[in-house]
Amino acid sequence: MNRPNIWSEGREILFEDNHLLVINKPAGLLVQGDATGDEPLSKKAAEYLRFKYKKPGEAFIGVAHRIDRPVSGIVVLAKTSKALSRLNEMFRDSQMTKTYWALTGKPPIPENGTLVHWLVKDTVRNVTKAYSEKHSQGLRSELHYELLGQAGNRYLLQVNPVTGRPHQIRTQLATGLSTPIVGDVKYGFIAPLPDVSIALHARQLQLQHPVTKEAMTFVAPLPDAPHWDAAREFYK
Hints:
single chain; alpha+beta; Pseudouridine synthase; 11 strands; 14% helix; globular
């Protein structure tokens, strides 16, 4: 059996113990399988564990949350059912701090603030619409954002979503600030990126370990893509 070629410690594998496998997901990779039939992150992770530990059968991998296919960054997978059930509860109740980096074509006005919308997902078209007033079919969605600075001819925003809705950051930035994410033609950016990703990266996640209760912080390096190069100077 060949070792899956996307994995390397410290780059794609950010952390592993008996209960968790934390991955820096490349843009373009599904987290869970869908109608396309493309191999998802969850299957690649199971293959990785099967290879590493020489398991004769399938390795358990539980998915507690997802990030969109064109988005890169942190995904926490469960290696045990105990960890999965507790992670599900933590993500459902927003018991963690999520930090994203996003590149936009123009600066937000104001440069920092809080956005609240009611989001309605169109599952047929796979798009989400944001309403500034309460909507009977909408889910209340909140995020905090701040402009970190200019990155080349783009602008780097740090975004902390309070809730976790489908396409939340993408549609709230586009609707609430008129600053669609670079490459995100679905939500109004003028042109796609060459690799068909969007410039949104799940940069950091802070949470309590679901089993040991230890406070943990994971940080994911930016992708090796030219559109992120100017943002690297903002590393702390």
